[in-house]
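Morning F.,

Quick status update on the modeling queue. The single chain you submitted on Monday has been processed. Sequence for confirmation:
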Amino acid sequence: MKTMKTGSFSGILAMALLLPCALPAAFGEGHLADYIRPFVGTQGEGNTYPGPSAPFGMIQLSPDTDRDLWDTASGYEYTDTSIMGFSLTHLTGTGIPDLGDFLFMPQIGEPKLVAGTKEDPDSGYRARYSHDQEDASAGYYKVKLLNNNVTVELAAAERAGMLRFTFPASDQASIMTDLAHFLSGKKFKLIWSHVRVEDNATVTGFHLINGWAKERYLYFAARYSRPFDHYRIMSNGSEVKYDSARTYRFRSRNEASGTNLQFLAEYKTRPGEVILVKAAVSAVSAANALQNLDAEIAPQDWDFEKVVKTTRDKWDRELARIEIEGSQWDKETFYTGMYHAFLAPNLLEDVTGEYRGQDWDIHRAKGYHNYAVFSLWDTFRATHPLFALIQSERDSEMIQTVLSLYDQSVDHLLPLWSLQGSETWCMIGYHAVPVIVDGWLKGVKGFDPQRAYQAIKTTAMNPDYDSVATYAKLGWVPCDQENESVSKTLEYAFDDYCIARMAKALGKQQDFDYFMKRAGSYKNLFDASTGQVRGKDAHGQWRTPFDPHAYGEGAQADFTEATATQYTFYDPQDVPGMIQLLGGKEKFVAQLDALFDYKAPNPAAGAADIQGRIGEYWHGNEPSHHIIYLYCYAGHPEKAAQRLHEVIKTQYGNKPNSLSGNDDCGQMSAWYIFTALGFYPVCPASDYYVLGSPAVKKAVMHLSNGRKFTVLAPGLTDENIYVQSVQLNGKDWKRPFLPYQEVKHGGTLVFTMGPIPTKDWCANCDPDQR
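Structure tokens below.
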């Protein structure tokens, strides 16, 4: 999913090499977590954040450099030169801002209550900083604030985190908590907030946000290592004071409600004095936030290094699910990709098992952990298929969460883009379907398949959702009745294929026949006269005029963040049928070549932020992610190899600007992980992967079922990127398709690599004949 920003990925210069993290030597060397580079994706389009998080954690402490811009959706942009403060929650790689809840900021002197501007940081509590004095690694972040000479360090457990402030000598030091802060994108609103001083070292509060997620409740609890010398609650710039007349509606200085609240913990500090804050969040209550905090970091435990090490060890264990051999660049790029892929979805339930559901009631997860943040239009493509192989226990819990969201939906729909239990109605399709079906067909357990199938079928038959009823009747979504009609038709058709796959496995033959017919609906929008998919109205008339390269207006009404040229290649469930429509393999390959060779710039404003462009292949956004692999279906794996390595070397890496598009909760990173391994799930919920060209010399996947699948490419070099031959478990393999069953049972896949493009090894290119 793209953002609304502008600029050129190719024109961004790397600001600096990532600096080594200044952690105590006790954390050791030689761990996989050492290869994580949290700054990757923080410059330009990636929209990642550099602060610490546990794998799939509820809390993500990180610096915020902006709250208003959509091109700072994670709160942090590497090229900004000042920091607003450090908030407790963040999204990873999204195109729309939200979260950034509860900002903590140390100050020296009379506290300021507004942030100020990037142009004039001194007008508020912003602080200048330099990347020379900023570090980040797995589970840890550090920066020195130049305005006030305070050093800030961050650490995170799953639901709680720690902030360590090292102050200079001052008679007027403070730590401000801004309850009005969140990543608003200038569009969203804080509805209400409340803060309460529980004792002289503990504060709780909440705010209610009408943001991307509507009516989003979040509570926090914070404990301070040093009792307050003084404290103040500020409301609209004025101190909340005891007032027996209640002139200002406040009876106590210890709590307040409003829409612009800040809490100030004030101290007199010695040179180098350290004050720590432990904080946790909950979507249920302040009491639960306190329970989360005390369960994960005990009340008397102020061991910052222990929190860092515990989370760092968790990252070591998660990254060990795939072990690779390669260069330093290979390892940093690969393991940073795994890191980003394992940041979301995020835990939503408290240590009590409670969570706030889509119906805003409080529920208790029974027998599983409940999650939030499902960017399904993005992550169904590669992220969840990766989970199905090496994170099946978590994938099961995520599927159970998705089914709970269906149960709580007043519309009886599976989620589209669920954010902290709230449906954002962002993007198209019903892509919870491939997540469920692919997981189940790949052996993910823990949920009732009959219950899951009922949710899937009910969603796909919902007459009130985005012209699904008309689509079922006509065989397409009419462009005169629905925006993004072509994209919706094609994506519904793929989702229907997934439903058919599950129906067949469950013995539901009638449903299988019905949904397989719907899966062929992509053919109804193919215009043979143009060789493209095209909008069609309810009377069967093509949209006119038609420009296959248009984006942003006109034909864009029919496409989702893409062009007709790109969506013509979206039929992953029936690529042989697509090839036939386009006139056979030779013409199909020629049309693919034309997409990559396209030269004319796209002037549409809406497309300006989609980067990673090779002609009209835009790797910075998901509709292009499978396209390179389509060469393999037409007998040209050498063309795929050339383009795959071009993307890997130019659009990934270990620098802040090394992602060409929004990471979208791990999808961009998951594409790299699969591609580096040498195979990719072009058609999730199918029983095969498509072979490409590996980017690491050796990889061992530790599958969730306990088996190992090893990929070897010993001859791989910068020149030897072309597959010469393939062996699977010691036997010659002549097909560009890797059956899931071969992966499931473990084994060894060997690529012989060379510098000469060849397709001779690839004899059978029909996935149905593999």
